[in-house]
Automatic annotation (TrEMBL):
The lineage of its organism: Eukaryota, Metazoa, Chordata, Tunicata, Ascidiacea. Residues 75-86 have a biased composition (Polar residues). Pfam families: ERAP1_C (PF11838), Peptidase_M1 (PF01433), Peptidase_M1_N (PF17900). Residues 651-948 form the ERAP1-like C-terminal domain. The chain crosses the membrane at residues 23-45. Residues 351-567 form the Peptidase M1 membrane alanine aminopeptidase domain. InterPro entries: Aminopeptidase_N-like_N, Aminopeptidase_N-like_N_sf, ERAP1-like_C_dom, M1_APN-typ, Peptidase_M1, Peptidase_M1_aminopeptidases, Peptidase_M1_dom, Peptidase_M4/M1_CTD_sf. Keywords: Hydrolase, Membrane, Metal-binding, Metalloprotease, Protease, Transmembrane, Transmembrane helix, Zinc. Residues 113-312 form the Aminopeptidase N-like N-terminal domain. Residues 61-99 are annotated as: Disordered. Belongs to the peptidase M1 family. Residues 61-74 have a biased composition (Low complexity). It comes from Clavelina lepadiformis (Light-bulb sea squirt). This is Aminopeptidase.
Length: 1019
């Protein structure tokens, strides 16, 4: 998916919308998806035109006009339907076929779709007989016979057909063909139509499904229903779609694989008396009115789409309002659709303003025009993915498209911009050029991740996008890819994961760095033009890079095909060790990095040509020129070791963190780097490198290759650091410490240390004054929120007092505005420090507000309570879909389970309500609760809790509970090894008699002498 809501973070993410480092570390819930994803398609040739194009299909307050019916549909409501899985022969029964084409999970290449006609009629009222919501449809597919075969294989899932629904016609010969039999092979969701005579190679055929029906369920897949209450208080039901990866097949019978591209004619029908209208990928072409059972239905006929994959089809029947804008040349119409309340509140205005800019920026950057006449985007109340990049009609969960200048936070503004950039990037990378199969999904998602930063930079160049990439994607990729259970970018099972998104984007950023922006971009322009409206593999992309590099005379000694393959065909990444080995020599060695000391390489999965070694573009600067604008590059051509000739006392490697690798510096060199960091000229080292030094040292200490004390020593320099990404990197790194030490006797001392460097730096520097809310200071405001959040979380009393005072003022006057920059942190701190009254007030506000972003903040804040009975009640509320939407249940449960005060409450609740949880929120959301809690478990008692619940869960949960056990044992081992070391570094002695404070002034005296008011206490 363009953007999938994959992560279950422990709080609303402030720095983007990607999977948290902590979620990546926990290998519990790596989602293997061949059933949930996105892509996008955009083209180069002139857009389709039609003589009777309708200029405006969705007035803000009225439905479109209509004409007299020309082609009334079959009265499906009086037709007898047959449920395929039970009434048609099941080819997957006892006499399952041995036909390899049928048992193969991939469709054969004997038939190639050319054009579909899809006619859908969702009924937005319950059926009086079944009590279900139903949609009716008919469709046809024109296809070419490329290899003679006596059967037609298509995909179909959960669709009901009439007894004689299918008609097959040979368009070349001009005759109808006899259908011998129709079967259904459930394992591959195949509809098998056997013909009396095989198709003739080169002939064109048309298969029509005259009538079918399916449930318009609330399962967030295929064509489904979403419900909400409008501004008048009326309950509304709308039809919406999510086709990636396999939702199309439960909407109409089709060749539902990304490489089977075709054009589409879409017709959507809806009752004319309910104030609905229809939207699809293309503009409306004409309307007609039809009579069905005495009720008038409006039918909207849309222009033919460009050639595209089935998973990019989008349909909607709704009553939404919108705002409209146009690209700079006036050629592309953009509309942002949403419920009436957010539209009238101005929450679509921001998206409406930046979307044309982003389209223009990307069209210019890649010299490829957006080929459709419109670019619609819609915020949907119920949407399973984060967003889906359907060509011409991008769909979003509300939180990722709507933005309120007063209510939404500074993080929301950045996140909305990023997600729009990501989805519109897909219009070129994914829609125009599509991955040949899901095994290559990184060609869609990695590119969208990389290109979204180009888009965001085009919106505001002050937002430091390259710095934010390091935190939001490079570091995410490194943590996602540091275990032997990871996977390569190119993988047969097609994972939609941090690897596909963040590592894919990071790989592209690294390639751009060593190829140069001009060569890199020119190759991509050629790639988009050469592969337009078709599908691509990694080899196709690599050849365009190689050809452009040859043309430009670059990297002639570097085997580019092998370079690219070493990063895309094998999992993992290297750790480079940098050490001085002579007066003028520095040696760099590489090894496969695994973060768990007990993990080992899985050589059965190693790509044989590389065997966990990489072609590494090692970039570096010497200490004497560290502030310079140039750097050197030394290529490691699969060597385990190279030597660099230099007399520099130290070097900084991986300049601006462009490479996908970690660096461990030998002790003497690390000491020189620390001297530089603790000097007044520490900013000579780039912000990206300062952040990556922190990220690397903590990851390396987790792996056992470096002591935890060395990692902590490096952080002392932060007392003078005021930039965002070094601080957010540090705070994320010590999240693991906070989890494992949350109930340790040394936690207070650890928190004191964090405050001793945080308060005099970013907390005091940025303060609470958030008057300047201009876009140019967005990153500074993000840092202010980060500082306040951390100060309150680690117990700085002044911060907590300010938060509780602001909360009190809010309770006394609901119109009182708490700055959205730090609102979530204020709410959390005040609820944690408060009791029932504070929690109930937040809940009342949650029920009253409309903003999805505000609701997210409140759901997180309410998880911060310290009262077990309140958290238990909150868990009950989450299980009620009338209180918390289905799409929000998993995230909310992870908030509760992820809190120190919530971890045991969550586990007890699951123990006592197992069947109820599975029947209401399902296994995925239940696992979200337990996984979040388990990440805080680190004792034998915690292990016993897992074993007790394992007995209730049963054998179906064996793998999940084994992963919980592994997580806890890893945490226990880390705690046993490192808790005494941390205590010693802090100057704390923990004895059998209890806790004794023997803190040594030498550990913190220098900081306190410089900043005597750093803490509200004296040592």
């Amino acid at each position: 998916m363009g953007f999938d809501d994959l992560s279950l973070t422990e709080r609303p993410k402030k720095n983007g919308f990607y999977i948290s480092k902590t979620a990546a570390i926990a290998s519990v819930l790596v989602v293997v998806v061949l059933l949930v994803a996105e892509g996008l398609l955009v083209g180069l040739v002139g857009r389709p035109t039609c003589d009777n194009v309708v200029d405006d299909i969705a007035p803000k307050t009225t439905i479109p006009s209509k004409t007299t019916s020309k082609m009334p549909p079959t009265d499906a409501s009086t037709t007898k339907f047959t449920t395929m899985p039970t009434s048609l022969p099941d080819a997957g029964g006892p006499d399952a076929p041995t036909d390899e084409e049928i048992t193969n999970s991939r469709l054969p290449l004997s038939l190639t779709p050319i054009h579909y006609k899809v006619d859908l009629r969702p009924v937005l009222e319950k059926d009086v007989v079944t009590g279900m919501y139903i949609f009716y449809g008919s469709s046809s597919v024109q296809y070419n016979c490329t290899n003679s075969t006596g059967k037609v294989l298509l995909h179909s899932r959960n669709l009901n057909y009439t007894e004689n629904s299918f008609v097959l016609y040979d368009e070349t010969e001009g005759k109808e063909l006899t259908i011998d039999s129709i079967e259904f092979f459930r394992p591959n969701e195949y509809l098998i139509i056997r013909t009396a005579t095989p198709c003739v190679e080169g002939n064109t055929y048309n298969l029509t499904a005259n009538e079918f029906q399916g449930e318009l369920a609330d399962d967030l897949n295929g064509i489904y229903r979403s419900e909400y209450d409008n501004i008048e208080g009326d309950h509304r039901v709308i039809a919406i779609s999510q086709m990636e990866t396999t939702g199309a097949r439960q909407t109409f019978p089709c060749f539902d694989e990304p490489s089977f591209k075709a054009t589409f004619d879409i017709i959507l029908r809806f009752r004319t008396d309910l104030n609905y209208y229809a939207i699809s990928n293309m503009p409306a072409m004409y309307y007609e009115a039809t009579d069905i059972d005495g009720t008038e239905w409006n039918s909207t006929h849309f222009e033919t789409t460009p050639i595209m994959s089935t998973y990019l089809l989008a349909v909607s029947v709704c009553d939404f309002e919108y705002e409209e804008a146009f690209t700079a040349d006036g050629n592309i119409q953009t509309r942002i659709y949403a419920r009436d309340i957010p539209v009238r509140n101005g929450e679509v205005t921001y998206a409406s303003s930046v979307s044309p800019t982003i389209l223009d920026v990307l069209a210019t950057h890649f010299n490829v025009s957006y080929p459709l006449p419109k670019s619609d985007q819609m915020a949907v109340p119920d949407f399973g993915a984060g967003a889906m990049e359907n060509w011409g009609l991008v769909l979003y969960r509300e939180i990722y498209l709507l933005y309120d200048e007063v209510i939404s936070s500074v993080y929301n503004k950045y996140s909305v911009t990023q997600v729009i950039g990501h989805e519109l990037a897909h219009q070129w990378f994914g829609n125009l050029v599509t991955c040949e199969w899901w095994s290559e999904i990184w060609l869609n998602e990695g590119f969208a991740t990389f290109v979204q930063y180009i888009a965001v930079d085009g919106v505001n160049s002050n937002w430091k996008t390259d710095e934010l990439f390091v935190k939001d994607d490079l570091q995410v990729a490194l943590y996602a890819d540091d275990s032997s259970g990871s996977h390569a970018l190119v993988h047969p099972q097609g994972y939609f994961s941090d690897i596909s998104y963040s590592k894919g984007g990071s790989f592209l950023r690294m390639v751009e760095d060593f190829m140069g922006t001009t060569t890199f971009t020119n190759a991509l322009i050629n790639y988009l033009k050469g592969m337009a409206y078709s599908t691509a593999t990694h080899d196709d992309l690599f050849q365009y890079w190689i050809d452009e590099a040859d043309a430009d005379g670059l990297l002639t000694d570097v085997p580019l095909q092998q370079v690219f393959e070493s990063w895309t065909l094998q999992m993992g990444f290297p750790l480079l060790t940098v050490a001085r080995t002579g007066t003028n020599a520095i040696t760099v060695t590489q090894e496969y990095f695994l973060i768990n000391p007990d993990d080992s390489p899985n050589y059965e999965l190693a790509y044989p040509d590389y065997n966990y070694t990489w072609y590494v573009p090692f970039t570096y600067k010497g200490g004497s020129v560290i502030s310079g604008s140039t750097h050197d590059t030394a290529w490691m051509m699969l060597e385990k070791e190279i030597q660099i000739t230099t007399s520099e006392e130290y070097i900084i490697g991986n300049i601006d963190a462009k490479g996908i690798y970690r660096i461990q510096y030998h002790a003497d060199m690390l000491g020189k780097i620390e001297e530089k960091l603790n000097s007044t000229t520490f900013t000579d080292i780039s912000t990206q490198n300062r952040a990556q030094l922190i990220d690397d040292i903590f990851a390396i200490s987790r792996s056992g290759r470096e002591s935890v004390e060395v990692a902590l020593e490096l952080t002392k320099y932060l007392v003078q650091e005021i930039d965002y990404i070094p601080w957010t990197t540090f705070l994320d790194a010590i999240t693991y410490f906070e989890r494992i030490l949350g109930r340790s006797v040394i936690y207070g001392d650890f928190a004191d240390y964090v405050l001793s460097i945080l308060v005099p730096s970013i907390y005091n520097h940025y303060g609470w004054d958030d008057i300047d809310t201009s876009d140019d200071v967005l990153v500074e405001r993000m840092t202010r929120g980060l500082a306040i959040g951390a100060a309150c979380e680690y117990g700085y009393q002044e911060c907590i007092d300010n938060a509780t005072d602001l909360y009190r003022q809010w309770m006394e006057n609901s119109s009182f505005i708490i700055s959205s920059t730090y609102r979530t942190d204020v709410l959390c701190a005040a609820i944690r420090a408060g009791g029932e009254a504070e929690w109930n007030y937040a809940w009342d506000q949650y029920l009253a507000v409309d903003s999805a972003q505000y609701k997210t903040d409140l759901r997180y804040a309410m998880s911060c309570s310290k009262d077990p009975w309140i958290l238990n009640r909150y868990l009950e509320f989450v299980l009620d879909p009338d209180k918390v939407r289905q799409q929000d249940a998993s995230r909310t449960l992870s908030y509760i389970g992820g809190q120190e005060y919530g971890k045991y409450v969550a586990w007890a609740f699951a123990f006592n309500n197992w069947d109820k949880m599975l029947s209401t929120v399902g296994s995925s959301a239940t696992s979200s609760l337990l996984s979040a809690a388990t990440r805080r478990f680190s004792t034998e008692f915690d292990l016993s809790l897992v074993e007790s619940l394992r007995e209730i869960a049963g054998v179906g949960w064996t793998g999940t509970f084994n992963s919980y056990t592994n997580t806890i044992r890893t945490n226990m081992a880390w705690r046993e090894e490192n808790e005494p070391k941390i205590a010693n570094w802090l100057g704390v002695s923990v004895t059998a008699e209890g806790y004794k404070d023997t803190r040594k002034m030498s550990k913190i005296s220098e900081i306190e002498l410089l900043h005597p008011k750093a803490l509200n206490k004296k040592y």
